[in-house]
């Protein structure tokens, strides 16, 4: 793991220095520095509400500190269920109850047994003046975590954004135009080119991490970091919007809001308004896309496109719940089909199972793939593991206050929330969760060894 990190960080630093020395990037950064200075010193900033605006929100401990705890996944899922026009089956209600309980156990109960601090344990008398022992002969347990160099993290994020931009132009060239301007071109996009574009999402997240460290160290001001957050979010969202995608744009906005919230860059009222803006964007893009594709008329409510999508997705989940049983029917084939080169992708495979047509892709929600692969047994284990990953990540975030762990948690929580509808089925997202789990596991082992010394 350390050798892999060393290789990635050194390669990233090399390319970052190479690109930043080029004339193009010299001009871009000079313009960005000028605009930032104008932003920071702008007279119009005085008209923007302060962090104490709508101070009533700050009186709530939950709103101030715990809006984005793992419990928000259950809340979002419940709201998604409420959007459905038709009721769900009793069988699905039972499976949802199992999923929610397993998730809560993993995130709030099992995670409690890790990263304990300030527990008094009798010292090993064979060790003279053990470094964790106090004068009363008790061992004061400490908390230790893996730290990363902020320059390495910035370089990796910078290179991921560059890769995303490069593949954006490859995607546009292969499709023969910009899908935003001509929606039919969206179906000509090739996954082999579009998937790397989404790397700019974790890329800007890692760059946010480096900026947060600079902010905490007093190197940049709050106005500067807010400007950089805004610019990176707008740039990445513009590229993703040009491809005609809706979910990745929401990922950028949601991740930025979560990082800004726990990094103390955004006030509570800004988080709430930002969340409402994200919902409005979801409704707006879905509405106008439906109009372009003649799926609805201008007389139809904008909310209807969201309701119909939720209703269709839950109808799919009803079918999956009915056919999956206790042990599933695909036994791992769904998750394995996400590997590049598979004949059918996971969503096409699910479409084949319920519609008998290979060209149909469907969104199976967060629990659909678990049910299909391993049934209720898989649902208990899968949701428990997912809850455990987010629970450990949340606990690590709270204990360390480290910018890097804020970003990692924000990325994983963002894709879990989005997965409430789409499922966690894209190979890049699965890799994020695997890497996150390995990072948290390494911290658990490091903390255990530290306190056993």
TrEMBL record:
Record-annotated membrane-spanning stretches: 18-35, 67-88, 94-115, 153-181, 187-208, 229-262, 268-288, 377-397, 403-420, 427-445
Keyword entries, A-Z: Membrane, Transmembrane, Transmembrane helix
InterPro entries: O_anti_polymase
The keyword Ligase is assigned to this record: no
Pfam (any one): O_anti_polymase
Name of the protein: Oligosaccharide repeat unit polymerase
Phylogenetic placement of the source organism: Archaea, Methanobacteriati, Methanobacteriota, Methanomada group, Methanobacteria
């Amino acid at each position: 793991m350390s050798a892999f990190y060393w290789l990635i960080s050194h390669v990233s630093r090399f390319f970052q220095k190479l690109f930043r020395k080029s004339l193009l990037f010299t001009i871009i950064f000079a313009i960005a520095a000028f605009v930032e200075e104008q932003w920071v010193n702008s007279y119009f900033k005085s008209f923007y509400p302060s962090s104490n605006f709508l101070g009533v929100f700050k009186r709530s401990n939950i709103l101030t500190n715990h809006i984005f705890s793992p419990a928000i996944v259950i809340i979002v899922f419940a709201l998604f269920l409420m959007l459905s026009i038709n009721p769900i089956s009793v069988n699905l209600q039972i499976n949802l109850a199992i999923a929610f309980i397993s998730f809560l156990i993993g995130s709030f109960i099992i995670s409690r047994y890790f990263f304990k601090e300030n527990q008094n344990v009798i010292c090993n008398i064979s060790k003279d003046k053990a470094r964790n022992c106090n004068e009363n002969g008790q061992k004061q347990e400490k908390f230790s975590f893996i730290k990363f160099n902020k320059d390495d993290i910035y370089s990796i994020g910078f290179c991921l954004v560059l890769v995303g931009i490069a593949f954006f132009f490859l995607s546009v060239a292969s499709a023969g135009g910009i899908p935003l301007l001509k929606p039919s071109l969206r179906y000509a996009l090739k996954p082999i080119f579009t998937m790397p574009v989404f790397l700019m999402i974790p890329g800007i997240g890692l760059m946010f991490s480096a900026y947060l460290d600079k902010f905490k160290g007093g190197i940049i001001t709050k106005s500067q970091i807010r400007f950089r957050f805004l610019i990176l979010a707008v740039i990445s969202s513009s590229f993703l919007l040009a491809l005609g995608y809706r979910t990745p744009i929401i990922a950028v906005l949601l991740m930025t809001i979560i990082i800004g919230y726990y990094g103390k860059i955004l006030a509570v009222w800004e988080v709430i308004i930002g969340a409402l803006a994200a919902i409005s964007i979801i409704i707006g893009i879905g509405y106008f896309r439906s109009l372009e594709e003649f799926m609805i008329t201008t007389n139809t409510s904008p909310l209807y496109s969201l309701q119909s999508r939720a209703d269709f997705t839950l109808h799919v989940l009803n079918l999956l719940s009915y056919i999956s049983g206790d042990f599933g029917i695909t036994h791992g084939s769904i998750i394995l089909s996400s590997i590049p080169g598979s004949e059918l992708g996971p969503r096409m495979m699910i479409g084949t199972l319920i519609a008998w047509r290979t060209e149909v892709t469907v969104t199976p929600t967060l629990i659909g793939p678990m049910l299909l692969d391993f049934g209720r047994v898989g649902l208990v284990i899968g949701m428990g593991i997912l809850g455990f990953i987010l629970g450990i990540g949340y606990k690590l975030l709270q204990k360390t206050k480290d910018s890097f762990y804020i970003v990692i948690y924000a990325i994983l929580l963002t894709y879990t929330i989005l997965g409430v509808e789409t499922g966690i089925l894209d190979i890049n997202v699965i890799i994020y969760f695997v890497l996150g789990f390995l990072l948290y596991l390494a911290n658990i082992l490091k903390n255990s060894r530290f306190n056993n010394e």
